[in-house]
Amino acid sequence: HSPEAIEAYLKDMATRGIPANTYNKRLSMLKKRCRQILEENGLDESYRRKMEAF
């Protein structure tokens, strides 16, 4: 799941009229999951910063 793919998925959900609170819950879940994956794989800081900016 690249940041771009996740963003596209979320935009798609938004255009289908998914309630904002569901949308935000999923967004924070995805961000948490991404952070987990980054930590497990010890990926570099620049990528982590990019994810946090997103």
UniProtKB/TrEMBL annotation:
Protein name stated in the entry: Core-binding (CB) domain-containing protein
Organism: marine sediment metagenome
Lineage of the organism: unclassified sequences, metagenomes, ecological metagenomes
